Amino acid sequence: MSETLPYYQTGTFAVGGRLLTPEQRAVQSDPDRMNAITKGHRACQGCGEALGARYAMDAAVRAADGRVIAANATGCLEVFSTPYPESSWRVPWIHSLFGNAPAVATGVAAALRAKGRTDVRVIGQGGDGGTVDIGFGALSGMFERGDDVLYVCYDNEGYMNTGVQRSAATPPAARTATTEPVGGQPGNSFGQGKSAPLIAMAHEIPYVATATVGELRDLEAKVTRAMEFHGPRYIHVLVPCPLGWGSATNETIQIARLAKETGMFPVFEAVDGAITSVSKIRRRVPVEQYLRGQKRYAHLFSGEGRPDIVARLQAAADRNIERFGLLDDGDENVNIDLLEVLATSERGPQ
Amino acid sequence: MREQLEGSQGIARTVARCRPEVVSAYPITPQTHIVEALSRMVRSGDLEHCEYVNVESEFSAMSVAIGASATGARTYTATASQGLLYMAEALFNASGLGLPIVMTVANRAIGSPINIWNDHSDAMSMRDCGWIQLYAADNQEALDLHIQAFFLAEALSVPVMVCMDGFVLTHAFEPLEIPLQNDVDAFLGPFEPRQVLDPDDPVTIGAMVGPEAFTEVRYLSHIKQMQALDLIPEVSADFRERFGREAGGLFSCLHTDDAETIVIVLGSVFGTIADVVDDLREQGSSIGVLSLKSFRPFPTEELRAALSGAKRVVTLERALQVGVGGIVSENVRSALSGTSIPTHTVIAGLGGRPITRKTLRPLFATAMAGELPEVHFLDLREDVIEREIWRASEGSHTGPHAESILRNIGIVRAEPV
Predict the structure, then answer these.
(1) Which of residues 21-80 of B touch A (CB under 8 A)?
(2) In chain A, what are the domain boundaries?
(3) pTM of the model
(4) How many other C-beta atoms lie within 10 A of the C-beta of residue B201?
């Protein structure tokens, strides 16, 4: 497959839509896409969640021929998209509470089933607080019952809507308003938190995937894939938050890429509880490069710094690399989906 | 045709005839027999076009109901006690969104101390959640109220809880008339939602509303309940015409027209009190009883009219507003504000303590003699209280009250009250 590599532009892994057939192009490149979450919303500059939600929802809408109902948890996405009396949502959309979006989605799906409506698909969505903390019981219930819902978690690793507090998705050493690096504390404690995707897999649901807004085609592809299944499906998308992470607003995508390229955030997909593919690290970088771009880790580099803590984070990333097989061993395709698309392209440059 | 049935079975069969499309449920005593029966009916195919969702909590039970109702499905669930409290946040949400969900509350005490028996603490604690609250005096009325509840809910786009006493009604066997399917269909008609999640006509439901409109949205909820004050008697009258039975309404009265003393009650204790009142009437006492059916909305003006000739009003209630006294009686007092009619609160039957004729007779005699205090706790074991207060004052680590009191009254034997 190495001969396909020249298809990439120098220095990046982006590929222009013009190189692809219309069927292979991004949902977002389609001028007739729905724009399920349309302009005018109040997200911060550089918001990873707004970006992720747009790509995910438009991909789901396309896969369902426009027949989608969304249930949203309380949180940034809900607040910035529905400021009274406006709404950015062009799909039928309901917000109920912080901790019940999966159950509300189940209710929507149950009603559709009772009415014999097989044409309409249901999407649940929320941030990491609404998903892995307060809504986790409801999410697990939705999984184990086999309810026909795709649930998308936009993970910005904390409670950003309430002013950047720690969630169970906050990584070790990160500074939040409730994990200040004071009194010798490292920021968020090591040895806490949970992997919602792995727990989702333990429910043996049809489809689980992780993605980042650093690779939006991958996110689209995974949402599209998820929509091929019925039953509970879960996609966990890393969405950098310039406000909470203290990152530059023009570096959201770069930071998301580094999360993956360092091994800090493994990108994979799983079918029926078993991992079926991982997105390989293309160019391995030390975690320090990821950490330095974010003020939530600034305490690790000020004064004498905390090389001990940086080393622990590097060890955690290394463990991910080992555990998920994130490094290319030379035989496997790099980023399988995209290369397959490129390999079958009839219009690629020679 | 009347059948000898457990109350819960009667409720389930009646709810089924209302053709719910989604039933979500989580087990909690004493409501479980209702949802068990509905589950069986869905599985067997006796209840068609209905999805039964076994959820993992009451919070999700109400949340599933919210999603289903917003998608245009006629939606039902049932709960009690701790379960009602666990869904509290979703209760406010359902009413705020104006979703016509119907729920049975099999009234049960709230812990701690944990207690599975009947009182009205659960529903009373949710009195401000924006749901219509109807109370059934007996099982036949509980059945009939469910049909009326679906009508009211859908006519006003407001959720309705039908409150029936746990165990006392849910587990009691008595002859019940299950309404016929054709009659229920004719009474209810199909559900036509005011708002529905539909890709053909996408709407946003549950948007953020700030100070610029929040008051108006809340006021509309209030207006709907005020409209219910007119609609509830109409629906009850329509029901009587079609089914030939009295059920519901704002309240019903027994011997109140010329009564000097009027006792106000909610729920199944009406039966016992009606017996006592009948006896007292035969003995020439001027006493009547008013059975309150609609607690939310509260029929302030109608009650005021019904109570205007009384010399005193005694509200007997199975709930306690700790630090205040009565809950219903506070509403009664506001209905009588500006009059000189004294009001009394009797807190009775907490945690399933039986309310018996034996103690009601002296209670009413005291009331009619004008000697009832403003707040009275029926059958309170004052010796036990005194002993416990004394014990707790003896040291700093005196341990939990509940266990101590149980020890003092002798947990190994049933304590006659």
Answers:
(1) 21-22, 24, 49-51, 53-57, 59-60, 63-73, 75
(2) 2-343
(3) 0.94
(4) 8
